[in-house]
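Figure S4 source data
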Amino acid sequence: IPTVEQRRFPVVDEERGVVAAIVMFQIPEADIERERDGETVVRHYDPRSLYLFEAFKIRDGRVQQIEATMRDLEYGLTLDWPAES
């Protein structure tokens, strides 16, 4: 994923070990080649924006669990949040 935009961490609770993250990925159109059973297989991917919300559970400084919700959107869409200073 070449472009990661508008990364936010609206919840960081160190006491409970919980972090929430919101991010937008810009994923361009691509044709990906892979080898399968000795043959080259090409898979086409349409361009899209991916809105992603993730919740992380942290224990002893390590990620123990991740819950994620994603939504595909039209390529180039943004969350319209102002840039961070």
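Figure S5 source data
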Amino acid sequence: PWNLTWPNESDINIPLSPNQIYYSLNKNNTSWYHYNLASLYWRQKGDAQKALDCIKRSLHFAPRYFKDVPMLNLGVMLQRAQCTAEAAILLHSVIDHAPHKPKGHFLLANVYTALGDYNRSIACYDNALSLKPNWGVAKRARHAIVCHNKVKNTLNNLQNSIQN
């Protein structure tokens, strides 16, 4: 197993209580949806290993159409654990599986930003925005990366002109 650790993710919004998730899994232990919710619960509590175990089960039981949901969850976990190269590989698989869902493109853009590959990041934000044109978070993130890239290029040009 991966050795992933991080603090509690209190910003995760889970639509069911822990007791409801537990009850649902006891009633139907093949529910991919409830295993995915359980993984969010364990991420919220900061227990990466239990979150991973639930994601694996969710992925195993998910119908083909919904496989992208636990894969996105795992991609976010990998990114937060600073396994960005692995997150990029996984998120490319998500996009191959569900190319018309904007969230995969958006999360891959975030990973490319973390890797410092701003051109690919902007391209992924563009893909997400082509699928969901009024997505404010994606618009703001793309704008921030474009601005950052311009500042970086300007500073590099300035440094080169000073050295010459």
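Residues 75 and 89 are 9 Å apart (CA to CA). The chain has a mean pLDDT of 93.
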